[in-house]
Amino acid sequence: MGFFYYDQYYFMLVIPAFLFALAMQLFVKSAYNSQSKIRNSRGITGAQAAARVLYHYGITNVRIEQVAGTMTDHFDPKTNVIRLSDGVYNSTSVAAVGIACHEAGHAAQHAENYAPIRIRNSILPVCNIGSTIGFPLAILGYFLGFEPLISVGLLLYALIAVFQLVTLPVEFNASRRALKVIEDDNMLCDDEYKGAKKVLSAAAMTYVAALAVSVANLLRFMLRFSSRRN
User: Fold this and answer.
1) Residue 163: which residues within 8 A CB-CB, separation 6 or more?
2) Hey, which of 73, 93, 195, 210 has its CA 20 to 30 A from 130?
3) Which residues does the annotation mark as catalytic?
4) What is the pLDDT of residues 130-165, one digit of tens each?
């Protein structure tokens, strides 16, 4: 049962990564709350902003719908629907415009068959398996003293970090697309544009933080299991 005793690697690796992730969550909430109180001078709603991005990319087969909740905005490629939350769909806030355009940026990625999207979708089924059985397999191998099973378990668990790594260019690119159309179509004035960029940058950092937590946990487990070998 030595694996479950005091874990120095948890304090050295995971806790700092977790605190970083928590800080990023607070950062994005702060950015969203501040920019959701600022109305854009052109009175553009989130739904209208998303529609402008779709028009910019010549996309005509994607619907825009309202969905309940807060920060529940997403693009569903299976149904070709952009779903915008209550605080974004009809809102004229700077935050709403930025978030809506970001989701429309995802629609543009799918329309163009953006390479990182293809890669992420292709590895998703295997990553789901890895997130479910990777660590249990490694633990089982640990107690059985069967090194190959530990290695397979850690490899499957590592796919979580791989998926999050591939997600980064997808999210950053969607934000770049959003900000480019906002600027090209003159949706927001200078200060408003900076506010939208702040919201999207903060949101992107939450994905960086999630990757950091996954990598920290992976390193922690690798070090713990390797200590058994030594």
Assistant:
1) 120, 123, 124, 127
2) 73
3) 103
4) 888 888 888 888 788 778 888 888 898 899 999 999
